[in-house]
Specification:
The chain has 22 helices and no strands. The chain is mainly α. The longest helix is centred in the first third of the chain and has 46 residues, at 125-170. This is Alpha-catulin.
Length: 665
């Protein structure tokens, strides 16, 4: 990383501001590099024409960069009244520092005498360092203030979501719910994009992991909220339906607050700031303290070292006390703990003996004990890793076929309350096993971000399990309710999705343990002041994102309309009536189109079939004319889409771009 002229890196030079995002940091690096180049020229013995031209070019480049930063800052100040004074001062200081650097680098000729009284970069290095400090400080302030605008956008977006969420919770009719949920969907898409950008931009990996966990909850809960609310509206007197719905709303509000805590760096109520110490970190810290004895025999006590080992041993009881830890692993863990205790006692005895004759370094006996203790600790970590990972792999394999979920769906659809109770008990047992496994994985995860992901997985299983039970209880009380069945399916899918996430987590933990780390995600570049003509170049780069947003919104609206049709058709007593049957067909085909907008792998598009179903309807002249016109448009678009999908692409973004190009036509 580039260093500032004052000998510190970009992250913490004395601007008085903490740089929390990669975009701000990376924007500063070229400027730091240019200024460092200028200052280092003082150390060159000869002022050649080539050197002078290089100094002038760099000075001019700094001036151009400062001009851009100032223009950006002034545009932000104009759009955000609350930042006007601070931004104005920062821009003024940046411009003044830029002018000073321009003056100091104005060295046109090698023949120019230094005795003419002019101060240049060659005659006054102190002035150059002072100007450099002022420039970096003021430009950093401009960027950090610009970053506040991004935070403000996220907070405003969250506030809109909360208001709409309150409205959704209070609605009493399905038609009103559909209208408000459509607005809610739009707001959630906007919030997802803003927070996704922020997540990629954060420097702190722990905050990034927490943000990813909260955003995952919001994404999964959106569909749960839809079906849980529909079920509650369809069965307003059902207590289990109300419990199910209330759980979703509570979870979404909590996730929204977590996002804002991370964005605003609020530390008060965040328990993620105070993670319980894992065995991995306990072992790591213990080894550091033991190896420190090679440097000095003084500065730490024997009692504190022994106490720390006992703390690690106590944590291993999460493994050894578990009924699901194999006898082999349990014995291995206990044996290594005992061996480490004994070797530490030997080390302490040798340590005290060395201190008794004022030794200044570790003795040979101490060195041998240090090596043995570190070796035992490494073996203990391996044993714990094998126990936790093996346990998790077996559990995922055992529950891969989702026998319990299928039993719940079957007994709920039959209205068999006794069978529902038995399957619910088995699901609760499965949940407890998963919770314990998540805790074991957290102990050996190897990094704090993965620890946070383990905690998130544990929380998810803790919440989704009871929600599945309340959903199946509702279905058992109303076994013919299609909405209740759909709701149960959604929660079961969330459970399966969480198991898939756990499998991914398991692979990541193994990668860390074996020293394999994947490439980090790319981050976004500042300046990013929001929607402004100042940032047209940024907006052009984000064009595919806007297409995704538009199609996601349309897909969600289509999903809501299909839900509306399902609700209305369910009210008909004659379920085999022609109108009901045709309406359900239309709804099913529309739903397949929605799935295409949501999943790039969804291959079934029934546009042509949809046109064929629309034609036979007996309608009035005006309605028939409108249907014919819309059907012809749909046929044309389907033909274009079928041609487009023949092109092989990979990934959701590419699919969105293909479909978006056809839709724009």
């Amino acid at each position: 990383m580039a260093s500032s002229p004052c000998g510190t890196n970009v992250s913490n030079f004395d601007s008085g501001l903490e740089i929390k995002t990669r975009s701000v940091e990376q924007t500063l690096i070229p400027l730091v590099s240019q200024i460092t180049t200028l200052i280092n020229h003082k150390d060159k013995p000869k002022k050649t024409e080539k050197t002078l031209r290089a100094v002038q070019r760099v000075g001019q480049a700094v001036g151009v960069a400062v001009g851009r930063f100032v223009t950006v800052g002034e545009a932000i100040a104009a759009e955000n009244e609350e930042l006007k004074d601070e931004m104005g001062l920062a821009c003024f200081e940046a411009r003044r520092a830029g002018d000073a650097i321009a003056h100091l680098t104005d060295v046109a000729s090698a023949d120019q005498p230094e005795s003419d009284g002019r101060t240049t970069i060659f005659s006054d290095k102190t002035a150059m360092v002072k100007a450099a400090r002022m420039l970096l400080s003021s430009v950093t302030k401009v960027l950090v203030l610009a970053d506040r605008v991004v935070i403000k956008q996220i907070i405003m977006s969250r506030n809109k979501v909360l208001v709409t969420l309150d409205q959704l919770e209070m609605v009493s009719s399905f038609q009103e719910f559909v209208q408000i949920f459509s607005q809610f969907g739009n707001e959630m898409v906007e919030f997802a994009h803003l927070t996704g950008d922020r997540q990629n931009d954060l420097k702190d990996d722990k905050k990034k992991a927490r943000m990813a966990a909260a955003r995952a909850v919001l994404e999964k809960c959106t569909m749960m909220l839809l079906t849980a609310s529909k079920t509650c509206l369809r069965h307003p007197d059902c207590e289990s339906a109300r419990i199910n719905k209330a759980g979703v709303f509570h979870r979404m509000r909590h996730a929204l607050e977590q996002v804002i805590e991370i964005v605003t760096d609020a530390r008060g109520s965040s328990d993620a700031q105070h993670l319980p110490v894992s065995i991995y970190l306990g072992i790591k810290d213990f080894k550091v303290r033991v190896e420190r004895l090679r440097e000095t025999l003084y500065g730490q006590s024997q009692e504190s070292l022994a106490s720390q080992l006992e703390g690690v041993v106590e944590q291993t009881e999460d493994f050894t006390d578990s009924a699901y830890t194999s006898h082999e692993h349990r014995e291995g863990i206990l044996r290594l703990c005992h061996a480490t205790r004994q070797e530490l006692q030997q080390l302490i005895a040798d340590w005290m003996h060395a201190q008794s004759f004022n030794a200044m370094e570790a003795t040979e006996q101490m060195e041998l004990s240090i090596l043995k203790i570190c070796q035992f600790m490494n073996k203990l970590r391996c044993e714990l890793h094998k126990a936790a990972v093996g346990r998790a792999a077996d559990l995922l394999k055992c529950h891969g076929e989702q026998v319990v979920l299928e039993a719940l769906k079957g007994s709920g659809g039959e209205g068999n309350l006794e069978a529902v109770a038995e399957s619910s008990r088995k699901l609760t047992e499965q949940k407890e096993l998963l919770l314990e496994t998540c805790r074991l994985l957290r102990h050996i995860s190897g990094t704090e971000p993965l620890e946070i992901t383990c905690i998130h997985a544990e929380d998810a299983f803790q919440v989704i399990g009871p929600q599945i039970i309340s959903a199946v209880q509702t279905l058992a009380l109303h076994p013919t309710s299609k909405i209740a069945k759909e709701n149960l399916d959604v929660f079961c899918e969330a459970w399966e999705s969480q198991l898939n996430d756990m499998a991914v987590l398991l692979r990541e933990i193994n990668d860390v343990f074996e020293g394999r780390r994947g490439d980090k995600k790319t981050y976004l570049s500042l300046p990013r002041p929001g929607v402004s003509s100042t940032w047209r170049n940024v907006s052009l780069k984000k064009a595919p994102f806007q297409e995704q947003t538009t199609m996601a919104k349309l897909g969600l609206e289509l999903r809501l309309l299909t839900s509306d049709v399902d609700v209305e058709s369910e009210k008909w007593e004659e379920q085999e009536h022609e109108i009901v049957r045709q309406g359900q067909n239309l709804s099913s085909m529309a739903y397949s189109i929605y799935l295409f907008t949501r999943y790039s792998a969804q291959p079934v598009l029934k546009g042509h079939v949809l046109c064929g179903v629309l034609c036979p309807f007996q309608l009035g002249d005006d309605e028939r004319t409108l249907i014919i016109l819309e059907t012809e448009k749909l046929m044309t678009l389907c033909q274009q889409l079928q041609m487009t999908v023949k092109t092989v692409v990979q990934g959701k973004a590419s699919t969105f771009q293909k479909v978006g190009n056809r839709n724009n036509g």
